[in-house]
Amino acid sequence: MTTLVRLTVLYMAFGVCTGELVPLDGFSTESLDTFARKKLMFLIVQKLNETIEIQDSLKHQCDLKINQSIEECNACARSENITKPASVLGSVLPSLMNPIILVAGVVKDIEGSMDNAVNVLGDKTSDFIKDVGSVAKTAGDSLIDGVSDVNNDILEGLSTFQDLLTSLVTDLGHGLTANVHSSDSGGIDFGNSVDSSLDNFGDHLSQVAQSDIDSESHLGHETDHDGNSIGHAFTDLGHANGGVFGKRSVCSVCDKVNATTRTSDEILKDVCGEDEIHRQRAATAFLSKMQTFYDTAVSKAIVTKVEYDPTSIDVTNGVAFKTVYVNYTIASTPTRYQSTVPLRITNLPVTGDALGQEIFDR
To answer: What gap in Å lies between CA 202 and CA 95, rounded to an integer?
Structure first.
């Protein structure tokens, strides 16, 4: 007996008190949960891709400001005949790259969860794999850009960081195809859903990353005011100790980029602005939320209970109820709220999709 039929019987036999909530049947609740989880999983991948694009843009803006400060420091140091401070790259690059590294970590986890993802996504699995593959490529390109920032002149102190980036790049490429082809497809043709170029993506990214280890960074290729190339700005600023640094110098701009006496956050705040620190913290919190949402969506039910007021029925387009309460759980935190999404009994996929968006936005 469907929910609608039971509701009709309830009206006819007993009547319903205004405001009395009725629980949605178990089968319909499970259906809504599956549709909501699908929506969440696609939203998460979409937001990861957007996060990479935003963080790359912000990093580039900060790069330019750092390069400008280095140029000014170089010019002042030459003019005053003083020693330049230690290289700033080893201090700021890991911080600048951290949001992208976090995104790559989430993508790796998604790639490794395809067995469970199939159970939730069903016939949408192929579309999901394509989206994940696209994000993996975007993240890989961004990581390669970070690897290129670590050239032979400034490897000291950053070799471990460089290894991390290179490893992530390789894993992103191999991870998706390896886990897809080892998954129980349930009748889904994964071969058609994985772009042929993705099969060799890991090898390609690894080779590009390795070649970039031997090349100069895109950062700091500037010329001084005399028109002479100063090479890699970060390199030109480093490899010298002592001098007047460690105390306030006659070159205030050099104080701002002095990695010996200042923390990464202090340098980024003064050179790139306080918003740079805020975006780092906001990105970390957001990506932690995405990780938690995905881990829950791929492994267990999120929507656990739906209740509605039968007297709020609306038959304008099918059968729907306007007064709806939803119980959902992310990780181990249960939440109950009044939803703004009408419960469309005759169109559960639309309702579940809208619930997924609403839960994501809360």
So the answer is: 25
* Structural contact between residues 232 and 217, judged by C-beta atoms closer than 8 angstroms: yes
Does the pLDDT of residue 42 top 90, yes or no? yes
Which residue is associated with the tokens 């070159």? 251
305-349 pLDDT, tens digit each? 999 999 999 998 899 999 999 999 999 999 999 999 999 999 999
Amino acid at 112: G
H/E stretch holding 205 reads: helix 201-213
Share of the chain above pLDDT 70, in %: 70
Q: Coil, helix or strand for 10?
A: helix
Name the pLDDT band for 200 (thresholds 50, 70, 90): low
Helix, strand or coil, per DSSP, at residue 121: helix
* Count of Cβ atoms closer than 10 Å to residue 166 Cβ: 22
Structure tokens at 175: 């991870």
CA pair distance 56, 215, nearest whole angstrom: 20
23 - beta bridge partners? 307
Written as six digits, the tokens of 299 are 């492994």
Torsion angle of the four alpha carbons 24, 27, 31, 37, in this order, in degrees rounded to the nearest 10: 80
Do residues 293 and 36 make contact, with C-beta atoms less than 8 angstroms apart?
no
Distance CA(264)–CA(63), nearest Å, equals: 14
What is the pLDDT, as a whole number, of residue 43? 97
The Cα 265–Cα 280 span in angstroms is 10
Rg of the chain over all Cα atoms, to the nearest angstrom: 27
Give me 32's structure tokens.
């809504």
Could you give phi then psi for residue 225, rounded to 5 degrees? -70, -10
Which of 66-75, 80-89, 134-143, 339-348 shows the lowest per-residue confidence on average (mean pLDDT)?
80-89
Strands, sheet with 303-308, edge to edge from the N-terminal-most edge strand? 22-23, 303-308, 324-330, 333-339
- Convert the pLDDT of each residue in 106-119 to its tens digit: 998 998 888 899 99
Say which residue the tokens 């309702």 belong to.
351
Q: Where does residue 18 rank: exposed (0-12), middle (13-18), buried (19+ CB within 10 A)?
A: exposed
Q: What does the pLDDT read at residue 175?
A: 62
Q: Are 99 and 55 in contact (CB under 8 A)?
A: yes
Alpha-carbon distance of 347 to 351, in angstroms, equals 7
